[in-house]
């Protein structure tokens, strides 16, 4: 074992660094989420890129809904989107493609990536503005009462989303 591992100054310095990193990450997340809606979720009643009508209020009668804002141009979304696609197999998910082109371009992106989640094209950012989204990816968990139960921006895991959806099912 290296000698520096036995020194308390190494562990103290490492602990301080980890605390600073955690605080900085929490501050960044708080800043990014400062304008995101809370309380009752804004209504979504619009056609998806597949031409099907999506009505958030109707979907909530079946259980909690994950609303995912993403962009085809967003590198972090490329990490989160596969997890969202997997979640969509087991939970209600609607996604909002931001500034990602017209419906044909969004469909091409989804096909290239192999994503099968329900998508609304927010080409001009109207829903993003209504929901207070300033960064992508942004995720909202809506409970059955229509309340925003959780918000997340940035990287998140499949298990984290599953747990939040499960908790929303208990609270709604």
From TrEMBL:
InterPro entries listed in its UniProt record = AhpC/TSA, Thioredoxin-like_sf, Thioredoxin_domain, Thioredoxin_ResA/DsbE_sf
The record's SUPFAM superfamilies line, in alphabetical order, gives: Thioredoxin-like
Limits of the Thioredoxin domain: 35-172
Q: Which domain of life is it from?
A: Bacteria
User: Per the UniProt record, which residue ranges are transmembrane?
Assistant: 12-31
Q: Which UniProt keywords apply?
A: Membrane, Transmembrane, Transmembrane helix
> Among its keywords, does the record have Membrane?
yes
PROSITE patterns named in the record: THIOREDOXIN_2
In terms of PANTHER family, this protein maps to:
THIOL:DISULFIDE INTERCHANGE PROTEIN DSBE (PTHR42852), THIOREDOXIN-LIKE PROTEIN HI_1115 (PTHR42852:SF17)
Tell me the protein's name: Thiol-disulfide oxidoreductase ResA
Q: What organism does the record attribute this protein to?
A: Sinobacterium norvegicum
Chain's gene name:
resA_2
């Amino acid at each position: 074992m290296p000698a520096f591992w036995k020194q308390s100054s190494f562990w103290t310095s490492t602990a301080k660094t980890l605390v600073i990193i955690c605080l900085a990450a929490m501050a960044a997340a708080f800043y990014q989420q400062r304008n995101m809606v809370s309380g009752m979720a804004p209504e979504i009643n619009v056609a998806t890129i597949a031409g099907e009508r999506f009505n958030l209020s109707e979907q909530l009668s079946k259980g909690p809904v994950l609303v995912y804002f993403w962009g085809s141009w967003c590198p972090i979304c490329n990490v989160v989107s596969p997890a969202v696609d997997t979640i969509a197999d087991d939970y209600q998910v609607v996604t909002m493609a931001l500034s990602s082109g017209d419906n044909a371009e969004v469909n091409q992106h989804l096909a290239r990536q192999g994503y099968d989640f329900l998508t609304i094209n927010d080409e001009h950012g109207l829903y993003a503005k209504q929901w207070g989204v300033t960064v992508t990816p942004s995720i909202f968990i809506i409970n059955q009462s229509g309340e925003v139960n959780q918000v997340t921006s940035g990287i998140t895991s499949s298990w984290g989303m599953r747990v939040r959806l499960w908790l929303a099912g208990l609270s709604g």
